[in-house]
Amino acid sequence: MTSLLELRNIHKRYDSGTVALKDMSLVVGEHEFVSLLGPSGCGKSTALKMIAGLSSITSGSIAWSGGGADHAHDMSFVFQEPTLMPWATVFDNVWLPLRLAGKSREQVRAQVESALQTVGLAQFARAYPRELSGGMMMRVSIARAMVTQPRLLLMDEPFAALDEMTRFKLNNDTLSLWHSARFTVLFVTHSVYEAVYLSRRIVIMAARPGRVVTVIDVDEPYPRSDAFRATPRYNELCVRVSKALVAAGEQSE
């Protein structure tokens, strides 16, 4: 596995004295799909924010392949809520990161339209967020993240608020995008079933303080379809991950 990103003994202590993460180490490879799974408060989202530069590191380091200090353009972030600008069209919402980079609408029109085509929303370019369903708004958020062509896509429980049918569909869409564009995904979820379906590896974290306690390989080939959810192997993996999650919840320092 060729490394893309390495977390080395990451430690996060807030001013209040709360330790969110302690000695968290993890290697994420090129074109991997890795899920972070653990009890509430174990630091999953904190880890993503530290990688994205949205939260400071108390100690430890984050190293990228090829070195360098500025990797802001190498990654995009999809949050739990779509965080769309309600006054802007779908096109303008997807254009936003390119606009902030100094690119005009005409310079990137083909790029934005391609991103919308990829998530199946080309015909909604002139629509406003209020005219879209929850699943469609999340697709816009994913298109906005994808339009910069990142090496790493950070996803923080992006489908948690959606109904099960929409969630399954977006799981499949995300895998399709990941397979075709060949970026790396670091995915935070509370769902064992979602983690097993999507991931190459599942990183189980324990809380108090947050740290990696188990890593489980999902040694099933891609592409995966809904039929995979009905297999004995899928059920076996879900049981194994569930037991590891329960064990992690019982660990504290």
Question: How is this structure best summarized?
Answer:
By secondary structure, this protein is α/β, with parallel strands linked by helices. It contains 7 helices and 9 strands.
Give structural notes.
With 253 residues, the chain is α/β, with parallel strands linked by helices. The chain has a single domain (3-82, 150-249), classed as P-loop containing nucleotide triphosphate hydrolases (Rossmann fold). 36% of the residues lie in helices and 24% in strands. It has 7 helices and 9 strands. α2 packs across α3, α3 packs across α4 (134-146) and α6 (192-198) packs across α7 (232-249). The relative contact order is 0.18. The model has no long low-confidence stretch (mean pLDDT 92).
